[in-house]
Amino acid sequence: MATTTWRRLIIYCVSFISIFIIGIAVDLACSGEDDPYDYYVSFFHNNVQGEHNYGAFYLSYNYVFSETEPESEPEINSKEWAAYFGHGVKEADITRAMYRLKKQDDSVMVRDKLIAFGKIPDSLKNNSFLTSITSGKYDAALKYYLFAKGIERTANTIYYRWDPTPVDTVRLRSAGLEALQLGKTEQGDFLKLRYFYQAERLLHFSKDYKKAMAVYDEYIGNFKSNSHIKGWALSLKAGEVRRLGDSVKAAYLFSKVFALYPERRIQAYKNYNFCKVSAEEVAKLAVNDRERAFIYTIDGFSNPELTMANLEHVYNFDPKSEAAGVLLTREINKLEEKYLTTKLNEKLTGNFNYYKDKYADSLNKVSIAHLQLLRKFCIKLSADNKYPEPALGIMAAAYLTWMEGGHRDEGINLLNKINGQHLSYKLNDQVQLVKLLLSTQKFESLSEIDEAQLLPALQWLDERVKKEARQAKPHYQYYYGASDQSKFAASSRDFYNLVLSEVYLKKHDTVKAALCILKSRRQVNTEFSIATSAIDSSQQHAVWNALPDFWKHYLSSTTINQLLALQKNAAAPYDKFLVSILANDDINDLYDLLGTAYLREHSYSQAVNAFKKISLGKLPKNQLAYVGPDAIGDPFINQLSDYPKIFTRKNSPAYDKPLFARRMIALQKQAANPQMAASAYFQMATGLYNASHYGNAYYLISYDWSSADYGRESRYSYDADYVKTKSAEQYYLKARALSNNPEFKAKCTFMAAKCAQKQIIAPDDVGWSQREYGAYDQAVRRNPFFTDLRKNYSTTAFYKTAMHECSYFRDFLAGRTKGKASYPNVRREE
Fold it and tell me: Are residues 72 and 153 in the same domain?
């Protein structure tokens, strides 16, 4: 107990995660983007409505859920050009020539003027657009194409502000005026409009906003055409209006672009918000209710807080608007984020690392009030029958009823109202998911009859997860794959972990609860295996199929034996379904768990028998405890100071779990011999102490290690040994009682003092006051065994050693019981 340590700096840091393969997996998993969606519990999928048109505006901690516009601007432009040429010119060839040429081809063909003389590089000879435009029949189009390509590099400089090349505003303005003159002289409307657009665009980029806006007002605004060029020009006009000081009008114009031109929708949304004006101000400029609906749609998509205002505005102005359904879904997702996630997690068994926000209770009241208002709106939306999918309202109201809780039959009765109605497949899937939630809520105890009724719904959910995985496009860039493609996997994961397992835990059925938690973990393995596609299958099992923390912390030997029996003898269809999640490889993990449980229970003979059943060829030693070979120690080394840890000495073996169990069996036999009993109990006590959080072989009874475990309150059945070292203390005292050697008795007393210190709850970083830190300092310096040492063993040589090794003991002897720096730097380990 000699060393002085710092308070823990990281709340949840596991220090020995050193298996190489896990390092690889983490590298692959953590690269690229964060997941913008799967950060809260959601059973109401955000893509139930408006996925194509408004998928970028689903609830997300990102500014937008996706940066991909609903429509492709190059494709739209290519389609318009294809219509200009008529049959024989392919849209794909136009897209390639205008947008996707390699720099070398573009430079040779356009800037080296080959195309001006009808010459095309061999690699592009089959491009129908280039062959047509150089055929002599479309000289006007060729002239425009050469102009646009010629100014392209200068015009596009504006988009690369990190590039040191300055924007050539003089060249841009000159080209803009040239384009304006070419537009005036051009005879065909198709090219005329494009010249005018180029004129506005180039003048805009040259920062001559007044001239650019004048081009729009005089030549483009009233131009008779349905071309999307007008929308792109309107977007420029909106920017010009903002630059010239009228942010409200600019926002209104951006809202028109948002509404009418989906290829510029995300851009318009961002620019609208950049104007920083209120929706009420902008709505005053709207000429009809549809425009007002779009203005409040943008405002609603921009608001992450609970609100009914925008949803009600959009629905009242345009009840048929698809955006109303998206806004409704957003409000439900907000409730999931702000209310449901906390509700399910704060009472989740074993979720000790979930920290409830200090404002959670007041937020819950606000959330419940909002939930009730939203449910009324949902029922109204369905009753009005104006929205294209009125069943959405009933289904959403039923889900909100489940979310609030306590209305088991009400939710089912609501869903019965839409029985037999034709629903879109997404809406129908959502209905089935809500039915599953309501059914589980109804079955409080889950009898065998209840399980039989529940089984078809669980099988349906499994099939949806598998179908989703088959249809998902692989995403190699980041760990989560694509959460927008894995909604059922995420919902299934949360259902089994947060809902169904808790039902079983309430009825004290740990076996089925454990199976639910395991199924929860493995519902997303398809996405995980994509992230680790470079790793062989056995290594993937080690990373992603490892058993959940609940299994490692909560399962007793009795429960594990029941699991093994159920795996072999499951008869009921429901039991077979649930136990099927156990893979063949899991049998090794189960026996490792069983052996470890026996070690925790001090049943060493049973532990040896369990470890014998592990196929070592398939399961590396200590796979479940994340330690490397250099961290495997000799737990029977006795050291007075916890740090630095001594793992092995010369001729000292490194103990795995079976070897430890066999040594403890041998010591138990020695303890029956009076002449060897004191030494045997001391060694057993040392082995138990070193198998604790504070020793050199924690991996013998724990599958992880965290600095946060130091002196914490008990959580698990084995914490009496792992955190509190109570058995070790008892064995040290037994050893002392059986010995007549004062030096040995003094050492036993000091080791018991170490154990007693660990039973004092240590200060945490959260919620501890100065007074509580001081109380801890006093407690560790007033260790009752210190009194025993001073009273009975002050004449021993070991007494001096203890004084030298332990500063707490020195403080006790000197009467210093408060410590010098009790807050915030508490000394933890002596």
Answer: yes
Same domain for 223 and 147: yes
Residue whose token pair is 């399961």: 619
Under the phi-then-psi rule, with left for phi > 0, alpha for psi from -120 to 50, and beta for the rest, what region is 652?
beta
Structural domain boundaries, residue 759: 657-814
Radius of gyration of the chain (CA): 36
Q: Hey, how many other C-beta atoms are within 10 angstroms of the C-beta on 488? A: 22
Bridge partner residues of 14 (DSSP): 706
Q: What share of the chain is helix, strand, coil (3-state, %, to 5)?
A: 65, 0, 35
The Cα 281–Cα 532 span in angstroms is 51
- 231-236's contacts with Cβ under 8 Å and 24+ in sequence apart are 231/257, 231/260, 231/261, 231/263, 231/264, 232/73, 232/197, 232/261, 232/264, 233/196, 233/197, 233/200, 233/201, 234/261, 235/261, 235/264, 235/267, 235/268, 235/271, 236/200, 236/201, 236/204, 236/212
Residue 273 located in a structural domain: yes
Closest by Cα among 671, 691, 687 to 679: 671
Residues 387 and 452 in one domain: no
Question: Is pLDDT above 90 for 69?
Answer: yes
Phi and psi at residue 14, to the nearest 5°: -95, 125
Q: What is the tally of structural domains in the chain? A: 3
Cα 714 to Cα 723: distance, rounded to the nearest angstrom: 7
d(CA 761, CA 678): 30
In percent, how much of the chain has pLDDT > 70? 84
pLDDT digits (tens, 9 = 90+) for 484-522: 568 999 999 999 999 999 999 988 999 999 999 999 988
| CB burial of residue 665 (10 Å; 0-12, 13-18, 19+) | middle
How far is 456 from 439, CA to CA, in rounded Å? 12
Give the model's pLDDT for residue 304: 95
Q: What is the pLDDT of residue 103?
A: 75
Per-residue model confidence as pLDDT tens digits over 119-145: 788 788 899 999 999 888 999 999 999
Kindly report the average pLDDT of the chain as a whole number.
Answer: 86
Chain segment 339-369, per-residue pLDDT in tens: 999 999 887 877 766 666 666 777 889 999 9
